[in-house]
Amino acid sequence: MFRHRNSLIGITLLILLFFVSCGLPEAPVHIDGKLIPVDQEHIGEKDQAVDSIIAIYRKAMEEEMEVVLAHSAQRLERGTPEGLLNNFVADLIMKQGQDLYLPEDGQPIDFALLNYGGLRAPLPEGPVTRANIFELMPFENEMMVLTLTPESTRKAFEYLAQANVGMPVSGIELVVSDNQVEEVYIQGAPFDSSRNYKVLTSDYLAGGGDDMRFFLDAVQEEMLGKRIRDAIIAHAITLDERGEKINSELDGRIRIE
Question: What does pTM read for this prediction?
Answer without folding.
Answer: 0.79
